[in-house]
Amino acid sequence: MENHKNTEQAFRAYVKKMADYKEANAVLSWDLMTGAPPKGKEQRAEVIGMLATEFFKMSIAPEMYEMLARLGEEDTYTRLDPVMKAMVREMRKEYEKNKSIPAALFQEYTVLTSKAQIAWEEAKRTSDFAAFRPYLEKIINYLNQFIDIWGYEGHRYNTLLDKYEPGITVEIIDPLFADLRKKSVSLLERIQERGKTSDTTYLKKRYPASEQRKFNEFILQKIGYDFLAGRLDESTHPFSIGLNPGDVRVTTKIYEQDLQMALFSSIHEAGHAIYEQNIAPELVGTLLSEGASMGIHESQSRFWENIIGRSEAFWSYFYPNVAAAFPEQLAGASVQTLYRAVNQVQPSLIRIEADELTYNLHIMLRYELEKSLITGDLHVADLPGAWADKMDDYLGITPFDDASGALQDVHWSGGDFGYFPTYSLGNIYAAQLEAALTRDIPDYKEAVRRGEFDIITHWMTQHVHRYGKMLEPAEIIRSATGEGINADYLTTYLENKYTDVYELV
Amino acid sequence: MENHKNTEQAFRAYVKKMADYKEANAVLSWDLMTGAPPKGKEQRAEVIGMLATEFFKMSIAPEMYEMLARLGEEDTYTRLDPVMKAMVREMRKEYEKNKSIPAALFQEYTVLTSKAQIAWEEAKRTSDFAAFRPYLEKIINYLNQFIDIWGYEGHRYNTLLDKYEPGITVEIIDPLFADLRKKSVSLLERIQERGKTSDTTYLKKRYPASEQRKFNEFILQKIGYDFLAGRLDESTHPFSIGLNPGDVRVTTKIYEQDLQMALFSSIHEAGHAIYEQNIAPELVGTLLSEGASMGIHESQSRFWENIIGRSEAFWSYFYPNVAAAFPEQLAGASVQTLYRAVNQVQPSLIRIEADELTYNLHIMLRYELEKSLITGDLHVADLPGAWADKMDDYLGITPFDDASGALQDVHWSGGDFGYFPTYSLGNIYAAQLEAALTRDIPDYKEAVRRGEFDIITHWMTQHVHRYGKMLEPAEIIRSATGEGINADYLTTYLENKYTDVYELV
Questions:
Q1: For chains A and B, what is the number of CB pairs under 8 angstroms?
Q2: Domains of chain B by start residue, with CATH
Q3: Interface test with A, best of B16, B17, B25, B47 (most A CBs within 10 A)
Q4: Scanning A191, B149, B224, B322, which has its CA 20 to 30 A from the CA of B460?
Q5: Does the interface ipTM go beyond 0.90?
Q6: Residue B473: its H or E element
Q7: In chain A, which residue's Cα lies nearest the Cα of B26?
Q8: What's the pLDDT tens digit per position in A14-34?
């Protein structure tokens, strides 16, 4: 008893140190992405590498093995508190994943992906898939080696999925996505047949950066992003980063010719950040003080960006503010005009510019291609063609070059296969959570209409945020909604929304 | 031979890791001081503490001892290259300093100074010296314990001085300061008798923060601060911080009712930063990539702030720019008006507000009090009285309360005894360097008048900057100027300047 208490204490202190390394590196990364001067970046990368190596070494050190072994003894494990149990579970996973890959192999792979990212940037710039092809082939080869080392159940791709969405498998996703795809394509066709267009001209006027900055800050503060525990900056690619729950930062990118780009990216990132700001404080230093999975994380950002941020209630509440902030640009625009404008559906080539409905079709295309690439059913050389075929099938358009096709996303160059599906899982979870929220607080939309966003954050904190990584995604969804993952809520939500926006019958 | 090459390599890698820890912590500190949200700061302090502890542990680890022993063998040491020699010298110093203090004693002292800083802030706020007195007494007691452990030659205070200005002793400073004090007091009296006042009204108009920010950036860029290797932010107390030579950041503080506060603090900090930006790149990762001492560092900031920034040539060159930046505020102000305004001499109670002439008197007062406190000739209880007496002697004014007297500076609460004199040493070095610069480039002031500041930076880089911590302060001064430390250049410089500004005869 005494002994296992000592081990627990030592384990906590050990993991706290790892968490501190991780936090240090997160600060350095944020700094690199928001304004570190160029001449110091190369040396800074070495600092980041050193800290990451210390973290990695700790994760596979003999001490770690011994502590996990002791705490994992059945007699001991059952007596651990829930936080300890989750820590042991997560650290064991990390240990096994890291320990099983030979150091040399991992090193080769790290070098490959960092070169591949540079090659991808250049290939995208020149729209030259052939230049990127050898890198992608090698990456897929390594991923398959990792899958063989780690093992897999069911589909080979499951092992990759598990990195981003623990517990989710091809066997779960395939039927969900099949149904979502069918209904999305059909809804898209009905919208296109209806032939009604949104008036988006108001959103495309000149919106000065300084005014947008102030407006975005105002909105974020209103919806519950805590500026005493965060800050908003600008960066090339918007992101959110949790250093600790008292310091979760967001960035946005401002386009002076467009009101909605910065606004929705700010709200999206604030969704991620509000999640991490509300993780239970007792999880600090346990490495559980982060999102449960990429999908659950994305459920929060998408919930705020789309379900709330693109709702009629939201625009109704903020209408006086937005009209006052941009009186000239928005003179004559009604709530309904703006609501319809931000919900325009328009098939497009680029995922990150896609609307709420077609977005999932971009994801499913990538998911299907990834699976085929991993199994070898699709050769990298044939990827651009396969991409074009699916774009045509799902969206009725095809890329005019590689940059607007298979080279558009950074993910594959970093080896992030299995990541894309979490975006649509996020949309599915978000709609499920919205249904559960409606069940618990039937008039929550009226609260939004009055600007009382804390009702939502409170509910989300109770059911999602506070757990951090203590619960697995499926447990969170089940305990919050009373059922397992179910895409019907998303299809119903989309159906209702576009019936309203496009006056479908 | 083979063996000592291996030790050299291992030592380099080991020290590089320490330097990386230091750089990581510097980024975290910069972040804390420039905009980290308050709620995350407590946990961030733990991260900083962890990284500092790793650095400290490495500095006294058995491996360090062994490597220093091997590299220190006479046969080996003489064959090391100069960088290696300096690394061994510095790390040995660090090892001996850190190793000799019992861990428990150091821990107690760390806790004491962190509490003392909080107590000092409160005591200053309420102007209550009695509340701070017990902390100061304890700090002095610890410092005396450290002096006994580390040993001393000559005056006990030398051991403290050596922390900030290696090689400088009371025996060196006392005669220098005595002469400087006599001449400064006499010059001050002549200025006061002359009865001429500068017109500073132009500097006290309304200068909007955003305009000042732009103007400061412009000036810094012009004088050679490299914005590709740095950035300018705002903070409560202006500072500069070198992360690596490619990333040396400065901050300033803007007062909208004053043009010169931000301007001269920006130039001052840029002086520090230009120094570190120009340290030889091969010193990165050796822990020699920083200033040689506090005094040499201060010589650079003071040189830019006072000798250049408050020169007639400087104002002559920038006059069109400053007049264009602030046309309304400066309508009617001539170059001469501005030059005289920024060189106003006026005895004041607060060190950081003091002019170039009286500043050194503030320093000498502190230096003398520190010595007496350490030897026990002065009791802490008697400090406010002793302070008032010296203020009256040197400046002819006395504090109206403790906050404007002995409580005004943060240094003592952090245990930084021995630090103050480096400010005046910096002024002395700066004037010596200016004389050497004039000898090498007799028309350098004409270059300033044409805005060709790179001539100066080039000279300083050759003679000071590039060496980083490779040379000791005395070596730098001797190799740059051809002689040892000499305060005559400063007294001559001050004499000439104020004869010009105040038209003394």
A1: 109
A2: 1-100 (1.20.58)
A3: B47
A4: B322
A5: yes
A6: helix B473-481
A7: A28
A8: 999 999 999 999 999 999 999
